[in-house]
UniProtKB/TrEMBL annotation:
SMART domains: WD40. PROSITE patterns: WD_REPEATS_1, WD_REPEATS_2, WD_REPEATS_REGION. Belongs to the WD repeat RBAP46/RBAP48/MSI1 family. Pfam families: CAF1C_H4-bd (PF12265), WD40 (PF00400). Residues 35-101 form the Histone-binding protein RBBP4-like N-terminal domain. One of its GO terms (biological process) is ribosome biogenesis. It comes from Selaginella moellendorffii (Spikemoss). This is Glutamate-rich WD repeat-containing protein 1. WD repeats lie at residues 277-291, 300-333, 343-378. Residues 1-17 have a biased composition (Basic residues). It comes from the Eukaryota. Residues 1-32, 109-137 are annotated as: Disordered.
Length: 442
């Protein structure tokens, strides 16, 4: 079971030698003089990096009409991102299209070796050539946005409607339909033109800036925004406008860090209230809210540090990640019983967390320790498979059993999203760049 996509290799190594791969852990293992880090190609079906000018520390996947669930290469994806420019006037709301995302065909790779060794040198060379022959094409469109974008989210039911949380303390809603139409036309080409477009709505009722922002999956057009004063506002759609600014959800004693407005419809559980909202805060608590009555129905101290991120699965299970680097799983029906699972694998704050839309047992998280981890809670230890891995990879001792994959190579990881239509594909953003990749063991 591949648990890492990186290897450590000495530059003094003889050409043609095949040393045992070593998994390098940032913040734990030193990098000696004369050593360099290289990613292990066999760990990925595809991996590509791209940049959008200024760092974009928040982004979202835009659902498209190219197919509900796709896995054949080359792949195409659409996303939106918000910049962190040095000057407020230089910031942009970006809509991007990445096409020709090449990758490996698993059937061809498995048939490459008679003895079943898919990591043979000839197979690796063939895979490398296949990956390098096709270069992804990036096309972007931009809208001027005053101030850095703290958080950006696309409405799942209408992807052209996008909400942004600005460092200036306002939440804005935009319609990027015309930009998406340009990018989808097939001959969009590159463009450095910056559109100066007015947002559909601007809300300045938050007295300070914030980061928490989420659209409802269960009810189209409903939006929740939370600020650094601990105040949450719920946006109710009214044709092409939103009713917002009335009675707020107040209870957190510090900043609202993340919100989850609903769960995946295809995993819908009728025992839960579709108008329920979950919030987490730097006060260390999780709160559940009844939106129609604006009341807090449950509150629990879930971390001994800031709770940075949460992700609500379709059932009553919620994942949380904090400044303490710990990931917890909670059964919301039995919060008083404590977490049902936890790991302190990461050595720095958790910066994002998200359940897979395709597999309810799979969770991914990013951390300030520059690692993106993928967890599979249906995994059971296979002694024979573990023995085979140990023959070729010097894996660290004591790795958690549920740890399925570790992605590295990005500096200051901020956010990840599973692509809802590209099976097993993850997109992540960091201070250095974006990565789009698909682990080979998913």
């Amino acid at each position: 079971m591949a648990r890492s996509g990186r290897k450590k290799k000495s530059s003094k190594q003889r050409r043609g030698a095949s040393p045992k791969l070593e998994v390098w852990r940032p913040g734990v293992d030193p990098l000696d003089e004369g050593e360099e880090l290289q990613y292990e190609p066999s760990a990925y079906d595809t991996i590509h990096a791209f940049r959008l000018g200024w760092p974009c520390l928040s982004f979202d996947i835009l659902r498209d009409e190219l197919g509900a669930l796709r896995h054949e290469f080359p792949l195409t994806l659409f996303c939106t991102a918000g910049t962190q420019a040095a000057k407020p006037a230089d910031n942009r709301l970006i809509v991007a299209k990445l096409t020709n995302i090449s990758g490996k065909k698993r059937g061809v790779e498995l048939a490459a070796s008679d003895d079943g060794d898919s990591s043979s040198s000839s197979s690796d060379e063939s895979d490398d050539e296949e990956m390098s022959d096709k270069t992804p094409k990036l096309e972007v469109r931009m809208i001027a946005h005053h101030g850095c974008i703290n958080r950006i989210r696309s409405m799942p039911q209408e992807p052209n409607i996008i909400a942004t949380w600005s460092e200036t303390g306002v939440v804005q809603i935009w319609d990027v339909k015309s930009l998406l139409q340009e990018l989808s036309s097939g001959n969009a080409g590159s463009s450095s033109r910056i559109a100066h477009q007015a947002p559909l709505q601007v809300f300045s009722g938050h007295e300070v800036e914030g980061f928490a922002l989420d659209w409802s999956l269960a009810h189209q057009g409903w939006l929740a925004s939370g600020d650094n004063n601990g105040v949450i506002h719920v946006w109710q759609p009214n044709r092409r406008e939103w009713i917002v600014g009335g009675r707020a959800l107040v209870g957190h004693s510090s900043s609202v860090e993340d919100l989850q407005a609903s769960f995946h419809l295809h995993f819908w559980c009728p025992t839960l209230d579709p108008f329920r909202l979950a919030s987490c805060s730097s006060d260390g608590t999780l709160r559940l809210w009844d939106v129609p009555t604006c009341t807090c129905t449950a509150m629990w101290k879930i971390h001994d540090a800031d709770v940075n991120v949460i992700s609500w699965r379709s059932d009553s299970v919620l994942a949380s990640g904090g400044d303490d680097g710990i990931i917890y799983l909670w059964n919301l029906k039995h919060l008083k019983d404590g977490p049902i699972w936890m790991t302190n694998y990461h050595s720095a704050p958790i910066t994002s967390i998200e359940w897979s839309p395709h597999d309810s047992s799979m969770l991914a998280a990013t951390s300030a320790d520059n690692q993106l981890s993928v967890w599979d809670f249906s995994v059971e230890a296979d002694p024979e498979e573990e023995a085979q891995v140990k023959q070729s990879v010097a894996a660290p001792k004591g790795l958690p059993e549920s740890l399925l994959f570790v992605h590295q190579g990005q500096r200051d990881l901020k956010e990840l999203h599973w692509h809802p239509q590209l099976l097993g594909t993850i997109v992540s953003t960091s201070f250095s760049d974006f990565n789009v990749f698909k682990p080979s063991n998913l």
